[in-house]
Amino acid sequence: MASTLPYIDQSSLPAGFGWQNVIDEMVRGHSLSRAKVADQFLGNGADTCVNRAAWIEGFGIGIKSFTVFPGNKEQGRPSVQGAMLVFDDKTGSPLAVIDSGLVTYWKTAADSVFGASLLARPESKTLLIVGTGVVADSLIDAYSTVFAGLERIMVWGRNIENSRALALRHANCRADVEAVGDLAAAVGQADIISTATMSRDPILSGEWVQPGTHVDLIGAFKADMREADDALLKRADIFVDSFDTTLDHIGELLIPLKQGTISRTDVLGDLYDLSQGHVTRATREAITVFKNGGGAHLDLMTAKAILAFQ
What we know:
By secondary structure, this protein is α/β, with parallel strands linked by helices. The chain has helices at residues 19-30, 100-119, 134-146, 160-169, 183-189, 230-235, 243-246, 251-259, 271-275, 296-308; strands at 7-8, 36-44, 47-56, 60-68, 80-87, 94-99, 126-130, 152-156, 176-179, 192-195, 214-217, 237-240, 267-269, 288-291.
């Protein structure tokens, strides 16, 4: 049976597929009962095999399996490789195999922009992207697509030349995209800040953030990684994409929770709560922080969006 399943990668994704397709499926997925999720990590030295599974009743079942082999870079091979298998949740039948990198690419930025659509001020005009990698590149596309009122997108990276190169790649963007060299000054001018770095120590200071700003934290994905400092978390109303995949696993919140800087009650809600209207931005002047932690349920929603467009 497996040989008859369609295999979908970037080359087989139809023209016209876009960020709104994924966000619409995330809206649908979050209108249903909470997903059951489970992760498995197998290691052999520096090499890792990860299996992330989700089951959403009335929606589907998905398992994303991928390997991380850091040594592959020295041999000119990709360090991360994998695939996602999607099943029908009523019959258990496998529906398709999708390249895991394709799912991750669309999931990551859509997760953040979905959160921002529920938390950022609708009149937001200025976006700051912190980071210059693949995720940062996708964020420019995703935010400019969903936030039609954006007029200015600033890009900051530790290497200004990388920032300029990223800005240049988006010269035709509807908003003006420009590289900036002063992070503190850029933070103070932004309505929305999205961080996508590999930083292990906080790079974003709460003292720089102006009232009313929405902060989208993406980069930290391990227990020892953070992008925002304690001052920001103390000032902000904190939200996450999923309680199940962020609080006990990612340093962004795990570390300040363990240290007593914040408590679990300071995390006001997740995407289920936000999309179903149980929580929202409190005031126009509130600083909102959204921690994008990913999760297999978001992979499944993204995969379903891709399948629906075939």
